[in-house]
Amino acid sequence: MDKKTLNNNEIVLTGQYLGVVEEFLPDKQSTFVKDGQIYASRSGLLNIDHKKRKIEIKTNQEENWKIVKVGDVVIGVILFLRQYSVGINFYTINQKVHFNSGYFGNIHVSQISDRYVEKIQEAFQITDIVRARVIKLNYNEFDLSTSEKNLGVIYADCVICGTPLVQIGYNKLRCERCGNQETRKLATDYRKVDQPLRY
Ligand SMILES: [Zn+2]
To answer: What is the value of pTM for the model shown?
Structure first.
């Protein structure tokens, strides 16, 4: 058994030896004690409070759960399209930007619109900026929805030439540079958002 001294913020694994009870006050949620020795009861980042002599293991998941709640409105960028969902990276939660932590969410095809969406590509494209609502906390990812009128794409570039697209109708966009026409699930304030959207 490896009994070297561990450092703060070091990654520890479930079952790993952390120290002795004479040395630390073990956290009940994330450690267990056997014969006076403290072990990790889950994997995560080691957190040692030297003042209180408290030792515990934190996971990013907990931080996410604390900040992001069901019902929150987030703004993020479409990272990839799958057959039945899109992946989105977000930093803005209820108008507040959280620079230190990026969050990841999924929008399932059934949650894009209150109208039927046949193909994901008709609603979103990679790099679109989207406003969405958190509907479920799913392990360390978030399930999002854009079915409300004020939710959906708020900024999109032409997939051909990269020029910002102009709205020409309900969920319809046109590139003024190359004439390319595209569809999206648009928010009612498409390109009318005056806060910075890209970081
Ligand atoms: Zn274009």
So the answer is: 0.69
